[in-house]
Automatic annotation (TrEMBL):
Molecular functions (GO terms): ABC-type oligopeptide transporter activity; ATP binding; ATP hydrolysis activity
Keyword Nucleotidyltransferase (UniProt): no
Protein name: ABC transporter ATP-binding protein
InterPro entries with a match to the protein in the record: AAA+_ATPase, ABC1_TM_dom, ABC1_TM_sf, ABC_transporter-like_ATP-bd, ABC_transporter-like_CS, P-loop_NTPase, Type_1_exporter
Lineage: Bacteria, Bacillati, Actinomycetota, Actinomycetes, Micromonosporales
Organism from which the protein derives: Micromonospora radicis
GO cellular component: plasma membrane
Chief localization: membrane
ABC transporter domain: residues covered: 356-590
PROSITE patterns: ABC_TM1F, ABC_TRANSPORTER_1, ABC_TRANSPORTER_2
PANTHER family the UniProt entry points to: ATP-BINDING CASSETTE SUB-FAMILY B MEMBER 10, MITOCHONDRIAL, ATP-DEPENDENT PERMEASE MDL1, MITOCHONDRIAL
Residue ranges, annotated region (Disordered): 590-614
Family (UniProt): Belongs to the ABC transporter superfamily. Lipid exporter (TC 3.A.1.106) family.
TM region positions: 34-54, 74-94, 148-170, 176-196, 263-284
């Protein structure tokens, strides 16, 4: 994916040209822990040194006290070997202790940054990225990175150092055999390089598939009711099984690739060991090598087996970490499209009159070709309530979402009291605009926290007033009153209850402009009438833009704007539009536009039957 765009996740099989580049770009997270890393590296190197010294002590034991039958010398060297063993154990403990805290802290720092970045990204980004993909990036990808930062990098360094030091010692003990062991690095390097290339592709595929599976689980959990109602369980299960099968197959491919490589990697040091044993025994028999030296040589060589064996794992871990870094950078590289302009100003609520002016506004969703809005002109005067009416899919919700800048206009401008919305600071704008949607989102936190989302400083009286206004006093009767924690997405409440809480939340902000996207659709006729009468009082003091689908709600508006073909084709009072605009009349009666039929009564239907038929 190109940096800076908010297109969806990257093409599945695309292999990055520089898989390690994105890993390297995360180095800034290492900086605060540089000291800890230096310490654990030192402890690791010292432990490796202590481990390497043991075979050298063994050489002296065999060639010295054992050959000379000198028990005192033997005890001295045995004591030294014991001390070296203890030192190695203590150093390994220190290394692991430091390692855990620093890598977990780095993981948390990256996670916080990714989350904060996700918050800054516009609605269009979240429209296009499946939430499971984001979830898997912020959870499993970061765990992979932590494992690499805590184990992979360290063992890579320690193993390379061990290899080099041991090879130098081996060459000093027996140059020919030492060089033989050193040259075994060539096939090891070739095997590792080939493995790395293949493994990178497989890990990218697997990590993307994990995201797909997470998306399926999330969709199923959210759409459980719909799924059950339509009896779609088996189909969804089949879709899920296909996703997990793909994941399984990639996992098996990866595992087999690792197994094949591990076997090859294993073979190289074991073959060299065999050659060393035969050639070493011959050298001892001709007196060119002492038994002690042979013991030391073989013991040192055995120390290379683990670094070589672990090479496959380290490369695999490194490739997965590079892929994880890739996937995380894809999110971090997406520039937030809606940000404060340089010199953006904050306008205090008291200074806002509330004149909202849409001036030749156009809008097209990213990734689509047809514009939804094609030159919308509309003025909402301070204190006025305008209802936007139009056929389903005509762009009413889209138009409303431009006011708090959930999306930005393509061309034209929207001005609040003459200020282009893009010249206002986002936090200021969103403090001035209250919004409630048809599908209200409540969070899995307490009712109080949900209500005060836009006004954390609101007092109990203000919250009560907002709840009363929205006819949402039921919240006090919940088991723990306003402290009752809501289920995920507020699903423990009815649709109407959720809408009323969302309305109370929007009103509590004391907005200068209230934007309501059909917020009463889930209320029964009786409650709707109550909420409407309360809303009428609120709407008197502010500018409001409403999308309504029910005839009864349209009466809340001073004027109605008809949205057709991406433009406002008519504005006027409900009565005027009914009398003069056939398209409006047709919309209300759900009939094709044409001359009004003298026999058909048009207008708001008592009892609130749907105004706009979907
Ligand atoms: N996130 C999106 N990405 C691409 N296209 C979108 C997106 N959201 C909406 N659209 C398209 O934009 C058009 C207008 O949608 P919008 O939701 O604004 O209509 P609406 O008038 O509010 O509809 P309704 O009355 O059914 O709620 C539709 O054609 C819809 O398919």
């Amino acid at each position: 994916m190109a940096a800076g765009s908010d297109d969806g996740p990257t093409d599945r099989d695309e292999v990055r040209r520089h898989p390690l580049g994105n890993l390297w770009r995360l180095r800034s997270y290492l900086r605060p822990h540089a000291l800890e890393f230096a310490l654990l590296m030192l402890a690791g190197l010292a432990a490796t040194g202590a481990g390497i010294a043991v075979p050298l002590v063994a050489q002296r034991v065999v060639d010295g006290p054992i050959a000379r039958q000198d028990p005192t010398g033997l005890y001295r060297l045995a004591g030294l070997a014991l001390l070296l063993g203890l030192a190695e154990a203590a150093l390994i403990f220190i290394r692991r202790w430091v390692q855990t805290s620093s890598s977990v802290a780095m993981e948390a720092a990256i996670r916080d940054d990714v989350y904060a970045h996700l918050q800054r990204l516009p609605a269009s980004f979240h429209d296009r990225w499946p939430s499971g993909q984001l979830l898997s990036r912020i959870t499993s990808d970061l765990s992979v990175l932590r494992r690499f930062l805590s184990f992979g990098v360290l063992f890579l360094v320690l193993n390379v150092v061990t290899y080099l030091v041991v090879v130098v010692l081996l060459v000093r003990l027996h140059p020919v055999l030492g060089v033989l062991v050193a040259t075994s690095a060539v096939p090891l390097f070739l095997i590792a390089r080939r493995f790395g290339r293949h493994y990178h592709t497989a890990s990218r595929r697997m990590q993307d598939q994990q995201g797909d599976v997470a998306t399926l689980v999330e969709e199923t959990a959210q759409g459980l009711r719909t799924m059950k109602a339509y009896g779609r369980g088996p189909q969804l299960a089949a879709r899920f099984a296909a996703g997990t099968r793909a994941l399984h197959d990639t996992g098996v491919d990866k595992g087999r690739l690792l197994a094949r490589t591990a076997a090859l990697l294993d073979m190289v040091p074991n073959l060299t060991l065999g050659v060393v044993l035969v050639a070493g025994a011959a050298a001892v028999s001709t007196g060119r090598l002492t038994i002690g030296q042979l013991v030391a040589f073989v013991s040192l060589q055995l120390m290379l087996i683990w670094p070589v064996q672990s090479l496959g794992w380290i490369i695999a871990n490194g490739q997965e970490a590079a892929t994880a870094a890739d996937r995380i950078q894809e999110v971090l590289d997406t520039a937030p499209a809606i940000v404060d302009a340089p010199g953006a100003i904050a306008v205090p609520r008291s200074a806002v009159r509330g004149r909202l002016h849409f001036d030749a506004v156009t809008f097209r969703y990213p990734g689509t070709t047809a514009a939804v809005l094609r030159g919308v002109d509309l003025v909402v005067e301070p204190g006025e309530t305008v209802a936007v009416v139009g056929a389903t899919g005509s762009g009413k919700s889209t138009l409303l979402s431009l006011v708090p800048r959930l999306h930005d206009v393509g061309s034209g401008r929207i001005a609040l009291d003459g200020h282009d919305l893009r010249d206002l600071r986002l936090d200021s704008l969103r403090g001035l605009v209250g919004m409630a949607f048809e599908e209200p989102t409540l969070f899995s936190m307490s009712v109080w926290e949900n209500l005060t989302l836009g006004r954390p400083d609101a007092g109990a009286d203000e919250v009560r007033a907002a709840l009363t206004l929205a006819r949402a006093e039921f919240a006090y009767d919940l088991p723990w009153g306003l402290q009752t924690r809501l289920g995920e997405q507020g699903l423990s409440l009815s649709g109407g209850q959720r809408q009323r809480l969302a309305l109370a939340r929007a009103v509590l902000v004391r907005p200068a402009v209230l934007v309501l996207d059909d917020p009463l659709s889930a209320l029964d006729v009786h409650t709707e009438a109550l909420v409407e009468s309360a809303l009428r009082r609120v709407l008197r003091d502010l500018t409001a833009l409403l999308v309504v689908h029910r005839p009864s709600t349209i009466a809340l508006a001073d004027r109605v704007a008809l949205l057709e073909h991406g433009r406002i084709s008519a504005v006027g009072t409900h009565t005027d539009l009914l009398a003069t605009v056939p398209a409006y009349r047709a919309l209300l009666s759900a009939e094709p536009a044409g001359p009004p039929s003298p026999r058909r009564a048009v207008g708001p239907t008592p009892g609130g039957s749907p105004l706009v038929h979907s």
